[in-house]
Amino acid sequence: MIRLEHIHRYFQVGEQTVHALNDINAVIEKGEYVSVMGPSGSGKSTLLNVIALLDQPSSGRYLLNDQPVTQLSDDELAKVRRENIGFVFQFFHLIPRLSAAENIEIPMILAGVGVKERKQRVLEALASVSLQDRAHHRPDQLSGGQLQRVAIARAMIMRPAILLADEPTGNLDSKSGKEIIALLEGLNRQGVTLVIITHDQNVGDRARRKIRIVDGQLS
Amino acid sequence: MLIKDTLTQALGAISTQRLRAGLIILAMSIGIASVSVLTALGESARRYIVNEFEALGTNLVIVLPGRTETLGGQPPLFGETPRDLTLEDAEALLRSRHIAAIAPLTVGSAPVSAQGLERETNILGSTHALRRVRRLTMAQGSFLPQTEIDKTLSVCVIGQTIRNELFAKQSALGQWLRINDRRFRVIGVLASEGQSVGIDFDEIVIISVASAQVLFDTHSLFRILVEAKSKPDMYQAVDEIRGIIKARHEGEDDVTLITQDSVVSTFDKILTALTLTVAGIAGISLLVAGVLVMNVMLVSVTQRTAEIGLLKALGATKRQLLWLFLAEAAMLSLAGAVLGVILGYVTLAILQAFYPDFPMELPGWALLAALAVSLITGLLFGVLPARKAANLDPIVALAKR
What we know:
The complex is a heterodimer of chains A (219) and B (401).
Chain A: E1 2-13, E2 16-28, E3 33-37, H1 44-51, E4 59-64, E5 67-68, H2 74-84, E6 85-88, H3 100-111, H4 115-128, H5 144-156, E7 162-166, H6 174-189, E8 193-198, H7 201-205, E9 209-214, E10 217-218
Parallel strand pairs in A: 3-8, 3-9, 6-7, 7-8
Antiparallel strand pairs in A: 1-2, 1-4, 4-5, 9-10
Chain B: H1 3-15, H2 18-54, E1 60-65, H3 87-93, E2 99-114, E3 117-126, H4 129-133, E4 138-141, E5 155-158, H5 160-166, E6 176-179, E7 182-190, E8 195-196, E9 199-200, E10 204-208, H6 209-215, E11 223-228, H7 231-248, E12 255-259, H8 260-303, H9 305-313, H10 318-354, H11 364-390, H12 394-399
Parallel strand pairs in B: 3-10, 5-7
Antiparallel strand pairs in B: 1-11, 1-12, 2-3, 2-6, 2-11, 4-7, 5-10, 6-7, 8-9
Helix pairs in contact in B: 1-10, 2-8, 2-10, 2-11, 8-10, 8-11, 10-11
């Protein structure tokens, strides 16, 4: 599903060149549950950005579903992201002026799905994260755990095969954090490939496969 | 992304910044209102003048004695006095096949009196053809009778003001009117015409041209009004008039011919240029409004950096983001335009109430142009912020929170 071959990523910071990813080779199969751990500055965010197609590697090959994606244009990447990858962020990234339902609807709006189908799918998604009664609440009227559930519903609304979670519990109390992890693991059991990036040893240890990254190299 | 969704999302974004959006709409509407009001004023002035000239009659050629032209070179050693334009000249013009009617004119000022009341007024000597050429309407009685051009007649036609002042309490028809030391019988009263390009027909006494020449002791004509049979005939008539007069004036081309449409088109051009200039100056306020729209959109993009990053992560293409922000700018501008047009109409209505005689009307093309210009301004000034949004790096944008 995800195949990384000799991925390098350099950043130019002033005079210095930072080698954020140093010869990363990894294969993640469909339906896997992977955690990526490492100290801050180790390159895990860069790795996530590369996997998420938000960032292009400086060199190396990246095959997504056996298709090389390193040479695609911005708009082609946007389309691949839309159809294949769901995101969950540490800071939720919900749009404050939109209600929970409207936030969940956005990926379908971008994909040009018709209004009727959108409403139907938003209802299903809200039900799947047990937030039917919060559909018309705006983000500032929801708790952290609820916000992250809305974000997960949004991530899954296009039924992507891959779910990338960047510190999904990093901003939550431990009880909400456990609920969110349970929700994500539930999705993984339904066949979604789950990649969680985290600091939290307890969260990382739950994954069936653990990837450690230090100084831009897998260890 | 569906067009309707783009618009809905843009509207949603605008509605979160109501005050800011309101101010921008106000700025845009002032621009649009000033452009449309000034265009309407200019256009109305143009139409007013053009109508005035067209009311003179149609296919009109005016023959003036003397020739004005700038040739440059040496001034003539001996003063050149142009030959007078005479009644015989006027009569000769009737030989042209292209001419439908001629009305020779002699003007002068003289005291007129009736029953002890006297005033000074303008006397116009002409023929029965004047009525046709100048489209005069009668309130009472009849116009000058059709006779030979050089026959003196002791009858006259008077304007409304003269009638009111000299024959206030009785019917003017059939009364004697004394002009200088000659008596004329009033046979008709003109309907009130109001001012018509320089001549106030309400304050005039019309007598036959031969009588006027006797009265003012002159042989020359002030000018000859010629009505051609049709528009194409008019241009041929001009050549023929020139030919006839030249033949009669010993080969000297010493008359000036003015065609009515040349006068109209000159005024038309001047006033159109004036309207465009004034509208252009007002357009500066539109430009300022455009810059404001750009400013607001730039602020909007900066404030919503995280949102833009998110949309990119969720699979928004550059084109989608571009249109999202352009739609926002276009909506602000269009709302401003609609408000501006309403403001313009209100202003015009107020002006109209103060100046009811001046026909004020916002032409349809100006309305469409105002809407189009505001939309183009909005889009043009929206492009820069929208491009900025579309080109944001999603990683950097998402890192901001």
